[in-house]
Every structure is written in C-alpha cells, then in structure tokens.
Amino acid sequence: MSVKRIAEIKKKARRDNFDGVIVTHMDYIRYLTGFTGSAGLLMITGTEAHFLTDFRYKDQAARQVKGAKVSIVKGDPVTCLKDFPRFNGKNRTYGYDLETTTVGARQRLGSVLSQCLLVPDGALFAELGWVKDRDELASIKKAVEISDLAFERIVNIITPGIREREIAAELEYQMMMLGSERPAFESIIASGVNSAMPHAGVSSRKVKKGEFITMDFGATVNGYVSDITRTVVVGKATQRQKKIYGIVLKAQKAGIRKVKAGVMCSAVDQTARSIITKAGYGKEFGHGTGHGIGFFVHVGPRVSSVSNDKLMVNNVITVEPGIYISGWGGVRIEDDVVVTRKGCNVLNRAPKNLLEL
To answer: pLDDT exceeding 90 applies to what percent of the chain?
Structure first.
C-alpha cells in the first residue's frame, strides 16, 4: 500500500509542477511508508522515494519502511539533505505541506536546498486517506471494538466520588490492555457542569450523584483510530436529563440514517441539527455534526453546515450531535460509521440508551 500512497503524492507533484515533495511530519511519513519512529524525512521525486533517518532507527527502518529507499544519516535528517547533491539541483521546485511543516524545518530546508524553490502547498495532502481500503477498514473496526469493550468495562467502576482523572486513567489502561497502541487523542471525561463544554478535557473534579458524565475517547490500531462518545448519568436521571438525552439521541440516529454515498455532508449535518433546533436547543449545538477519521482523528470529509464535501463509499465518519447548557450540563453521542452505496454501517456496538449507573 505504501507504493500506492506514494504514487498519489507523485501524481499531485506532477499536477502542481513540482520536481518533488518533501514530507517532514512523522504521522504522514508513517502513513506513506509504515515507519513508526520519531525522526525522519521523506523526499518523493518523480523517479524515487527516499527516506532519511538516524542510527537509532537503523533496524526499525529496515523492517518497516516500504516503498522508499532508506539512508541512515548523522544528525538531523533535514539538515543532512546537503549530503545528497542530486536533490539540490539548480532551479528545482519542491512542494511541502503548509499545515504540517514547522517554521524551523522550513528554515533548515531553505538553507540546505539553497538553489531550489520551496513552495508551500495547503492542498498537498487534501483528501489523502479519505477513502479507506480493506486493511484500513479492518484496523478502524478493531479500534472501534476496543473502545466499545473499554466503555463496557469502565461503566462498572463509576460511582459518586470518583475523579474524572481516575476514570480517564482506567479507560486508557483498559484500551491498552485490549490492544490499543495508544489513546487516539487526549480523552475527555466531563462530569456535571463540565459536560457543558464540548472539549472539557479531564480534571480532578469528583463526580457527584445525579450528574451527567460525557466520555469522548478512542483507541489506535496500526495507526488507525476510533472516536466514540457516550454520556451517562450517575444515579437516577431526572426528567430534564431524559428529555435532553432523548433529543440528542433522536438527532444522532436521524443523522446516521441520512449517511449515504453521494449525499452532501451539509445535508447530514442539517438532518441532525434540525431536530435539535426544532426542540428549542439550536443555540446549544455549536459544533459540526461529525468528521472523517482514519490515520488521524480529524480528516475529511467534514460533516458540518458549511462543508462542501460529498460522501464517498468507504469514507469513515463520526456522527456526534450534542446539546450543551452552560451551568447545567451537556449530552453528546458519537458513533463511527462506514459510508456505503446504500447507506452506512455503524461500527460501534456500545449501548446508546441512557445508562443510569
């Protein structure tokens, strides 16, 4: 697959009249070559792909890197480009990703490739990895399975008095024990009034009886991630909590039913959003309905009211509407779904009925 992915970059390079593309972001290097180390540079030209890393990764690179020639260099791989004269020809033009190349890396590249023109390209990696192949889908499904199982385990330890940090630590431990490489992102465990903040993070706050807890987390398998959110109540739910939860669940299910290849992402957003708006909580739903996941936790297509993206077969997206009421609490429910020609397959199996713990 590395050869195919690198070929995509070569195609984009030809489209933009580049002599080559320089990749410095390690996540993209892993996606393109399979290398999981923390230092390296990938140079892709019209005729070759060349990966530079240092002695620490000699054996690792030999085992992992596919589709590119490996060279072990002494020092920073970016600076060591000077040792490869064929890359520093006069009047050559190289593209680099505007979003992921650091200022420091850009300055070093400019110094080393002084005879070349370096062009920032904000669309270089656009749509890269949006459509998943069979192996990618298998990894995402496994990551989803791990997060589902971890959720089933974590609800058994939640009682009044437990801290958000303790829940997060146990949840991430369970995912690791089930086979996750690492958390897909920094987990969110938001209890009580904290659950009114969509990205509240994790605090040392103690959970109280009668409160919502919103848990947003994911696992990683072969570099591919899951992204799930569940909201539960500690103790018995009030009528207001049941009402808000019911609105969000109805919106989430309607959004999922709208998912289908060829449908505009904005239409999926509108389907979910209209239910929340009609219920009187439109101002309390201030983020998009979802996003693509894959090798990164946020990729395209973007599922929002302003998105121009159209769903394609084997996109994997989240559907995650929510209602957030300041000073009271909030609810978000999120599943990962695979887009098909006739609709979608919901990957998550964790219960979505309101759990009263």
So the answer is: 85
